[in-house]
């Protein structure tokens, strides 16, 4: 063998002068959450200009509360989308959780906390069931969770009517453990002029934890991989099933958190609640830069998406506009944000 | 990578193989991709698997790497019968693979792909040791002789050969006992192919077992200790390198007469010939006459 090829090693690796190093701006612009950040700033400035109450610092609490109720679910839904799957049952699953806690505690006359813990089991089990069904049937998650969506919707109504003869659960505010549970899931505190709901704290903590997991842990690496190319991920030793089922269970956990807030905020749960929410979570995730095809996205972006949602919802109110148009506005936002995301990413990748 | 270099040029290959297949078969529904294949992989040797397109080479190594389970026969690892339920299980046994389709996640960065499934972690919270992973990735790629200036770039934007180099560097870095390379040099330049062949030799010298799949008889003959030729899912030749010359190997790979016929046929092509430019209707380029169609290649 004539040894003409260079010795393996540094010597052979001259720098490639066709590739200019990328500027910091280009790198920042190629982050998935850029589009949502731009959108959030634009919306913020818009409502600052047109809605007088929007400028009132005391209303920050209300806006953040609106954002947090969406954000708590948008974060795990974004993780799931990065992992390549959808969960259309996420909205009604929160209601299922609230109903379970309330019905279990009320009908068995137990401490409210028992209901809370059993509701957690139910919620995580629903998530695991979604994941299991996905792999068992081999169907796309859009279909599988659409099935779960209808199943849960029916169960919510049916079981509630069966046990209470009503469409809502009974008021559990005088039961044992209600006070402490309400402190955990439905309290609020003052921070200067701003009243902060506890869900805001949960939302921020969830966002930080999820962002850390996604970018700095092995599980995060696996989430990107199973969403980007599940077959390739499996071939190099990533446990694809466990990762995806884990993601569905994370959605279940957050649905529980969300459901507990519903219950302890209003003392009762409406059994028809939550329908249509699933799309709002997905919209927040997409505005935040998640690709529908998986493998790419950001939880911080999803949280910014939730913030946009919160600002818009109240901004329209504060501006005195007809709230009938809210959904239209949301749809326009979705399309615009997605176009901006794609455009910014394309530009940044070229630089 | 190169440790105790045991000099054992054609020493008697009597030691027990790390991996042995006995009468292994694999059906994809009604397609019998592999039938009764027996094969031994010994550490410190290079086993070349050769054969036509669709012969079943990739299917064979996918069984060994845990991607598929065989439907017939037995596989033994260190003398004990085994079945890998997943690639993760095969990797835990020290088997690393470069797949023909590379198995890279296109939207993930170079270093994340390199360590996918084998992430390095540090600290009490087991967070990713990103700095070290990037450094190792950079070094390993440099050893392959390719330059990727920004390891944070998604691999989807790299050239086919660059991607192949990442997959090869990854397998060589993580292979502990057996390295499987499925057509690793298919997309590579002359220089990088040379590096890969050297790596195969180094891995052999380090005492690893190597399974090398290629369509290039020259490459195979340069590094192979054993040659296994598959045809339509069956082993048609299993020989030690002492028993074969390069010419014989080439002839065997091409199915004997086929090569002779080809060289006879191509003698008339007149390589220096230039033809006046013309436009051609779709599908009007004539198919070369091939009288001996015997393969039902789908
Ligand atoms: N997933 C699958 N489902 C059905 N048939 C398959 C599948 N994978 C491979 N086959 C069939 O099995 C046979 C062997 O395929 P295999 O990929 O092992 O060939 P190969 O020897 O690696 O070919 P090449 O040199 O082109 O890579 C082919 O006939 C192929 O069509
Ligand atoms: Mg192949």
From TrEMBL, chain A:
CDD domains: TM_PBP1_transp_AraH_like. GO terms for cellular component: plasma membrane. Its main location: membrane. It is found in: Cell membrane. Pfam families: BPD_transp_2. The keyword Oxidoreductase does not apply. GO terms for molecular function: transmembrane transporter activity. The chain crosses the membrane at residues 34-54, 60-81, 112-135, 142-163, 194-215, 246-267, 279-305, 325-344. It comes from the Bacteria. Keywords: Cell inner membrane, Cell membrane, Membrane, Sugar transport, Transmembrane, Transmembrane helix, Transport. The keyword Thylakoid does not apply. InterPro entries: ABC_transp_permease. It is a multi-pass membrane protein. Part of the binding-protein-dependent transport system for D-xylose. Probably responsible for the translocation of the substrate across the membrane. This is Xylose transport system permease protein XylH. It comes from Planotetraspora phitsanulokensis.
UniProtKB/TrEMBL annotation, chain B:
Residues 277-298 are annotated as: Disordered. It comes from the Bacteria. The keyword ATP-binding applies. It comes from Planotetraspora phitsanulokensis. CDD domains: ABC_Carb_Monos_I (cd03216). Residues 19-257 form the ABC transporter domain. PANTHER family: CARBOHYDRATE TRANSPORT ATP-BINDING PROTEIN MG119-RELATED, SUGAR ABC TRANSPORTER ATP-BINDING PROTEIN. Coiled coil: none annotated. Keywords: ATP-binding, Nucleotide-binding. SUPFAM superfamilies: P-loop containing nucleoside triphosphate hydrolases (SSF52540). PROSITE patterns: ABC_TRANSPORTER_1, ABC_TRANSPORTER_2. This is ABC transporter ATP-binding protein. Pfam families: ABC_tran. One of its GO terms (molecular function) is ATP binding.
């Amino acid at each position: 063998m004539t040894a003409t090829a260079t010795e393996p090693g540094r010597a052979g690796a001259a720098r490639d002068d066709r590739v200019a190093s990328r500027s910091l701006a280009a790198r920042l612009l190629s982050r998935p959450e850029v589009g949502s950040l731009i959108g959030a700033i634009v919306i913020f400035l818009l409502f600052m200009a047109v809605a007088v109450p929007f400028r009132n610092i005391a209303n920050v609490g209300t806006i953040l509360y609106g954002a947090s109720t969406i954000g708590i679910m948008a974060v795990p839904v974004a993780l799931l989308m990065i992992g390549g799957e959808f969960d259309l049952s996420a909205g009604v699953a929160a209601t299922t959780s609230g109903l379970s806690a309330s019905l279990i505690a009320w009908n068995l006359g137990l401490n409210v906390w028992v209901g809370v813990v059993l509701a957690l089991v139910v919620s995580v089990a629903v998530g695991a069931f979604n994941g299991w069904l996905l792999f068992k049937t081999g169907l796309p998650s859009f279909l599988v969770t659409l099935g779960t969506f209808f199943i849960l919707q029916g169960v919510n109504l049916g079981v509630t009517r069966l046990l209470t003869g009503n469409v809502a659960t009974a008021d559990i505010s005088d039961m044992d453990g209600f006070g402490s549970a309400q402190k955990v899931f439905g309290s609020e505190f003052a921070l200067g002029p701003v009243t902060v709901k506890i869900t805001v704290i949960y939302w921020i903590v969830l966002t930080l934890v999820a962002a850390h997991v996604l970018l700095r842990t092995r599980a995060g690496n696996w989430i990107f991989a199973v969403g980007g190319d599940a077959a390739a991920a499996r071939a190099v030793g990533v446990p694809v099933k466990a990762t995806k089922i884990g993601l569905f269970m994370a959605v279940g956990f957050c649905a529980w958190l969300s459901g507990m807030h519903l219950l302890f905020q209003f003392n009762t749960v409406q059994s028809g609640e939550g329908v249509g929410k699933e799309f709002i979570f997905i919209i927040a995730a997409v505005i935040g830069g998640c690709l529908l095809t998986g493998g790419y996205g950001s939880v911080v972006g999803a949280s910014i998406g939730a913030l946009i949602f919160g600002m818009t919802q109240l901004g329209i109110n504060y501006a005195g506009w007809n709230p009938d148009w809210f959904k239209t506005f949301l749809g326009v936002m979705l399309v615009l944000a997605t176009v901006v995301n794609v455009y910014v990413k394309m530009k940044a990748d070229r630089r | 990578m190169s440790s105790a270099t045991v000099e054992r040029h054609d020493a008697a290959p009597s030691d027990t193989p790390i991996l042995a297949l006995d009468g292994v078969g694999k059906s994809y529904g009604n397609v019998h991709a592999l039938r009764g294949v027996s094969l031994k992989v010994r550490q410190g040797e290079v086993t070349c698997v050769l054969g036509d397109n669709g012969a079943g080479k990739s299917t064979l190594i996918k069984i060994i790497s845990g991607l598929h389970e065989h439907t017939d026969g037995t596989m033994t690892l260190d003398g004990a019968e085994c079945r890998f339920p997943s690639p993760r299980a095969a990797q835990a046994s020290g088997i690393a693979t470069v797949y023909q389709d590379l198995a890279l996640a296109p939207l993930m960065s170079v270093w994340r792909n390199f360590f996918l499934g084998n992430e390095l972690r540090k600290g009490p919270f087991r967070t990713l040791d990103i700095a070290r992973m990037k450094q190792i990735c950079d070094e390993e790629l440099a050893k392959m002789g390719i330059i990727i200036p920004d390891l944070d770039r998604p691999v989807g934007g790299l050239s086919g050969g660059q991607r192949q180099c990442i997959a090869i560097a990854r397998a060589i870095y993580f292979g502990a006992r057996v390295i499987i390379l499925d057509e690793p040099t298919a997309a590579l330049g002359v220089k990088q192919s040379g590096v890969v062949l050297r790596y195969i030799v180094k891995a052999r010298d380090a005492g690893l077992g190597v399974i090398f799949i290629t369509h290039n008889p020259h490459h195979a003959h340069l590094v192979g200790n054993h040659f296994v030729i598959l045809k339509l899912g069956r082993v048609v030749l299993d020989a030690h390198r002492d028993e074969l010359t390069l010419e014989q190997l080439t002839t065997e790979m091409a199915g004997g007469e086929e090569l002779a016929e080809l060289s006879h046929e191509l003698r008339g092509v007149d390589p220096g010939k230039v033809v006046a430019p013309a436009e051609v209707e779709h599908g009007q380029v004539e198919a070369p006459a091939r009288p001996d169609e015997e393969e039902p290649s789908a």
